[in-house]
């Protein structure tokens, strides 16, 4: 797949590609929701890490000067993508994000299938 960040972020090698579960796909800014991956046991809130489905990894990434944003190439599991499509209402756009291996920050991305 071809990965392109929507706003900020540069995909690195081995970055994880996630699809959001239905309750997360309606939120505007995933970076605010996923900035603290620790569960708050006092309020018994679910960890943001548990609301995403891992579907693949970025193989190579970097900053594209011509586009002015982060780009990369990765691979996704066909079965994981099929499961994500079954879990998420397909009438709306499916939201994806990446998380670099050296950071807890998540970035919204758009995916294009490369054949």
Automatic annotation (TrEMBL):
The name this protein goes by in its record: POP1 C-terminal domain-containing protein
Species of provenance: Schistosoma margrebowiei
Every POP1 C-terminal domain range: 29-114
Stored InterPro entries: POP1_C
Comp. bias (Basic and acidic residues): 25-34
Pfam families in UniProt: POP1_C
Region (Disordered): 25-50
